[in-house]
Write a structure and sequence with these properties.
It is globular, with a radius of gyration of 18 Å. It is low in regular secondary structure. It has a 4-stranded mixed sheet with strand order 3-2-1-4, covered by helices on one side. The chain has 2 helices and 4 strands. The two termini are 29 Å apart.
């Protein structure tokens, strides 16, 4: 800071995990197909690092094509933690518009598949689970923030 005072750090109101439903909404980008890029497995390989094309290693972000909303790496590369506790099945008749999972549990939801998985584990609808203390090189998280409308910059 020019006058020798320390600048006060900004606190971001975004440090909770996205819900599994929010993750799927962003992944699908308005589609209803198996993957955000359609149902063709060859097309998936243009959008995702998975067991068939990754060399069984992670890769830098955005080396593959993004979905229709411009979001990269929603399929493959690394699983993404979600803030929800895992529930094996949901009764679709009672499902709210934006389900958030049970209040507690032993496992957290992971989405997207990873660099060693088969394509079916990278489906837009597939949910994996792991205990929250699990640490693996095939799992990460996505930082997502709500930006107030008055502070958004147009591109």
């Amino acid at each position: 800071h020019p006058e020798g005072r320390k600048k006060k750090p900004r606190v971001l109101p975004c440090l909770s995990g996205v819900s599994f439903a929010e993750w799927e909404y962003a992944c699908r980008a308005g589609t209803t197909s198996m993957f955000s890029c359609g149902d063709d497995l060859k097309q998936l390989e243009r959008h995702a690092w998975l067991g068939a094309n990754s060399g069984l290693a992670t890769h830098p972000v955005c080396e593959k094509l993004p979905n229709a909303w411009g979001v990269c790496d929603l399929h493959g590369n690394v699983y993404e933690w979600c803030g929800d506790w895992f529930q094996a099945a949901y009764e679709t008749a009672d499902l709210p518009a934006d389900p958030t999972g049970p209040e507690s549990g032993s496992y957290r939801v992971q989405r997207g598949g990873c660099m060693v998985d088969h394509a079916w584990m990278c489906l837009s609808a597939f949910r994996n689970r792991a205990p929250p203390e699990a640490r693996h090189d095939n799992t990460g998280f996505r930082v997502v923030c709500d930006i107030p409308a008055g502070r958004r910059e147009s591109r």
